[in-house]
Design a protein that fits this description.
The protein has 304 residues and is α/β, with parallel strands linked by helices. It has 7 helices and 9 strands, in the order ααβααββαββββαββα. Helix 2 crosses helix 5. The termini are far apart.
Length: 304
């Protein structure tokens, strides 16, 4: 009877050896896979650490750049302020303004003023009457009808019409010094246009007169100049302030007067002591506040 321990049998030993080898062979790939996963995780962690470090460095650089830019702006501003300071007597006079406010070439203003002034003269002169004078421009119908009684030659029954001139009076007193260039331009343009009588009237008093033939002094003993405020039935444009108010008000009682006032000291004539009872309320003409060329150009549209 054959008996024996199976484990001790030669076949059992071989089977056990083979089983152990199979187990080892199966475990090795698993161990290798686990190592590979661990290596991959370690690599990913390392890459994440590197990326985090780079991000931190990038943010730090951005912050540094922002700080540098802010410092540069502050430094530039301080430099500009330092460059623009007027250090007279150690005082800070602020920042200089280097922008152009006006042009030195005033040809545009003069040409524009000339066109506007011509338009104003045209409006003022629309209803001017004509003075009948001796001439040869047209037939004198009254003279022709009266020939049978007068015995005049038919060739002597001729006449001309002379249109009344617009009167321009300018206040050249010291209180109008700021308007010196403006008034000088008005005088020059008026004489260029013609058909005007120009009066130099400081504080309203007639000083000299120009009808296109040159200036004539009122104080010349041979002068036959009628003061502008004593004219009658005329169209008058006056440029000046309240110092001439008595003369302007007087002229407005018997003439059609346009007053372009450059008065800046008083709001109304009632505040001015030299009116002597002839207040702005008694002025019968048209009153406009006009300090300079720009005011005159704007006001020209209101002239009717």
């Amino acid at each position: 009877e054959a008996t024996g321990d199976i484990e001790n049998s030669p076949n059992a030993k071989e089977d056990g050896k083979e089983n152990k080898n199979d187990i080892i062979n199966n475990i090795i790939p698993l161990l290798q896979t686990g190592n590979e996963d661990n290596n991959e995780n370690e690599n990913e962690n390392e890459e994440n650490k590197i990326n985090e470090k780079e991000n931190d460095e990038y943010k730090e650089n951005e912050d540094n750049n922002e700080n540098e830019n802010e410092e540069n702006k502050i430094n530039e501003k301080e430099n500009d302020e330092d460059n623009n300071k007027n250090d007279i007597n150690g005082e800070d006079w602020g920042i200089k303004n280097s922008r152009q406010a006006f042009s030195l070439d005033n040809r545009y203003t003069i040409n524009r003023l000339k066109a506007v002034f011509a338009a104003v003269i045209g409006k003022v002169a629309e209803d001017l009457s004509y003075e009948i004078t001796e001439g040869d421009d047209e037939w004198d119908m009254n003279a022709l009808l009266m020939r049978r009684y007068s015995g005049r030659s038919i060739f002597s029954c001729r006449q001309s019409r002379k249109k009344e001139r617009v009167v321009i009076a300018l206040d050249t007193s010291g209180s109008c010094m700021k308007q010196a260039d403006f008034f000088a331009n008005i005088a020059e343009i008026a004489l260029q246009l013609g058909d005007v009588e120009l009066y130099d009237a400081p504080n309203g008093e007639t000083f000299s007169y120009n009808n296109g033939q040159g200036w004539q002094s009122f104080f010349d003993h041979q002068s036959r100049i009628i003061p502008w405020h004593m004219l009658r039935g005329r169209h008058i444009i006056f440029f000046g302030d309240f110092d001439a108010a008595v003369f302007v008000v007087d002229a407005s009682m018997k003439n059609k007067v346009y007053w372009f006032s450059c008065e800046t000291r008083y709001e109304t004539s009632s505040e001015y002591g030299w009116f002597l009872g002839s207040g702005q309320g008694k002025f019968k003409g048209k009153y406009f506040r006009c300090v300079d060329e720009e005011d005159f150009i704007k006001l020209s549209k209101k002239i009717k």
